């Protein structure tokens, strides 16, 4: 399983979600992503969410297909090893707070001395400059700043139940890196790229969430908010979404369930249906609640009416379309056992076992990676001994936490 980025090496100095997501995309597309973590604890994502046999579920998804190395970049010997690794890399991704990499000596200006072709991407919350640059950032803070929380509910702001902008900025970073790799093929030069969650979120939200606020002068025609176009209806067994934007679709629905709402001026046009949506949903629900969702979806499909049943989280993997496409796979993790995760959306015609590698323990590939860059065995052994001692301490800590909960 090679992929279009086979042959490129990426050093990932990131933690939690945004940076690991960027690295995951590149790794899934074939890049040799080496995750460089601080010794002892490593990426804090290793301890977030559900955990089995010491392996966190979220971490295992975000860090598949990578290799793992632990280096203390404040230690001179470890830093020298890191510099040798930089010489072999095409890309470096970091998500330290602004100014930290310069203090350590791993900023772009210093590292390009070792590799002038290096593409260096910094991923931050609010950016490298400005009044918010040093704020500690969590995804809900970005959701608050960019207006998405208010967009869900103006009177009582609500967050997406997902760290959406962590992932959006990760995707944005991965795309920027591949574009920079294309440019490097033309020029032979590396470059510095700065990506912020703030800018990524605004770029992502603007076309639809702000579509009523794009034109700044008088004379625009307001068409309501896109999020209000798709009310949720209730079938007998579960909710369904029916997109009743087109008048012919609404008329077809009315004829199917034998009501004449399409002739009522309150509902005959999309604009009127939007104004009277609450009443419309109540009336239609009184008919739909007698019929199961599967039957409704099949009947609406025949009529060309856009529809989908609302799956609960534990039903998604049972959806017939997801099963047919093989969108989800259930490999066995060597540490934590059987798991479920999605295939990458673009497969590029690549065949083979997915994932090629599973997320592993901190420093798992130390000897393999350092042998490739001709690091002497005495240094490799030192790092292996350090990680073994740290692993023992972490196992003891996790056992103590289990004892507390029993």
Task: List the main descriptive attributes of the protein structure presented here.
406 residues; Rossmann fold; formyl-coa transferase, domain 3; 6-stranded parallel β-sheet; 2 domains
> What's the CATH superfamily of the largest domain, by name?
Crotonobetainyl-coa:carnitine coa-transferase, domain 1
Distance between the termini: 43 Å
- Report the structural category: alpha/beta
Strand order of the largest sheet: 5-2-1-6-7-8
Which bin fits the share of residues in helices? 40-55%
Please give the count of helices.
Answer: 16
Query: How many domains?
Result: 2
Q: According to CATH, what is the class of the largest domain?
A: Alpha Beta
Oligomer: single chain
Shape: elongated
Unreliable residue runs: none
Please tell me how large the radius of gyration is.
26 Å
Number of DSSP strand runs: 15
Largest sheet: 6 strands, parallel
Strand content: 5-15%
Global mean pLDDT: 94
Which fold name is given in CATH as the topology of the largest domain? Rossmann fold
* CATH architecture assignment of the largest domain: 3-Layer(aba) Sandwich
